[in-house]
């Protein structure tokens, strides 16, 4: 077994799961890849976090949101510094190392799964957790804009992540509708302004 064999299992397992071709075979491939990872005495947190994300998708597809959220939380933990809390309501406060932006995706997957829990159970607490998690994703997007000085990279961030602002705004307005708390309405408008700023930035840069 070479040090890269686990990636083959992860990539093929992801293909089977994300395209809903064969969930159980995909699950088996991911588990085999993780076994290889665990047998190698290397720091493979980045790769294992990726595998946990795929397993989260597997359980989300099966509508087992509790298990899905557990795996997304594990992925977040492995992509964070000094964060070990498995409680779904909690998120990292320190984003010193953002692992090439991968943690952004894990937070987005977690927020989306929490929204599905709300839709399934009418659980307003899950909706609040989803909003808090999505706000963390926006925090990382803003951090990445400062880290990446390349105009091209910043343009790609602006293009790809406008939907994150839209999603977070949607969560804030859902909470306002449910609770009547004006702070959520104000938050929704603030997020809308940030998102519009991202769109304007993309437009300006695309015309240069």
Explained architecture:
The chain has 208 residues and is mostly helical. 77% of the residues lie in helices and 0% in strands. It has eight helices and no strands. The chain is globular. It starts with a helix and ends with a helix.
Short structural description:
The protein has eight helices and no strands. With 208 residues, the protein is mostly helical. Helix 1 runs antiparallel to helix 2 (23-39), helix 3 (45-61) packs antiparallel against helix 4 (65-78) and helix 6 packs antiparallel against helix 7.
Secondary structure elements and their pairing?
Blueprint: H1 5-18, H2 23-39, H3 45-61, H4 65-78, H5 102-121, H6 124-147, H7 151-179, H8 182-206
Annotation keywords:
mainly alpha, globular, 8 helices, single chain, 208 residues
Extract low-pLDDT stretches.
Answer: 151-156
Helix content percent band: over 70%
For the report, how would you describe the main beta sheet? none
Structural class: mainly alpha
Round the mean pLDDT to the nearest integer and report it.
86
What Rg do the Cα atoms give? 18 Å
Estimated share of beta-strand residues: under 5%
Distance between the termini: 49 Å
User: What is the global morphology?
Assistant: globular
How many E-type strands?
Answer: 0
What is the succession of H and E elements? HHHHHHHH
Tally of alpha and pi helices: 8
């Amino acid at each position: 077994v070479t040090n890269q064999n686990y990636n083959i299992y992860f990539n093929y397992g992801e293909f089977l799961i994300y395209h809903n071709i064969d969930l159980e075979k995909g699950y088996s491939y991911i588990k085999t890849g993780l076994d290889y990872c665990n047998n190698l005495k290397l720091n493979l947190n980045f790769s294992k976090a990726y595998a946990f994300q795929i397993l989260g998708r597997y359980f989300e597809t099966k509508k087992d949101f509790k298990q899905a959220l557990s795996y997304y939380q594990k992925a977040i933990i492995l992509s964070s510094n000094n964060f070990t809390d498995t409680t779904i309501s909690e998120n990292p406060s320190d984003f010193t190392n953002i692992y090439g932006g991968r943690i952004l995706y894990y937070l987005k997957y977690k927020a989306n799964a929490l929204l599905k829990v709300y839709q399934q159970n009418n659980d307003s607490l899950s909706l609040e957790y989803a909003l808090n998690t999505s706000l963390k994703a926006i925090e990382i997007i803003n951090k990445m804009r400062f880290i990446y000085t390349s105009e091209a990279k910043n343009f790609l961030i602006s293009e790809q992540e406008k939907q994150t602002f839209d999603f977070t705004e949607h969560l804030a307005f859902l909470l306002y509708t449910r609770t009547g708390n004006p702070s959520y309405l104000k938050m929704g408008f603030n997020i809308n302004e940030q998102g519009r700023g991202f769109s304007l930035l993309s437009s300006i840069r695309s015309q240069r």
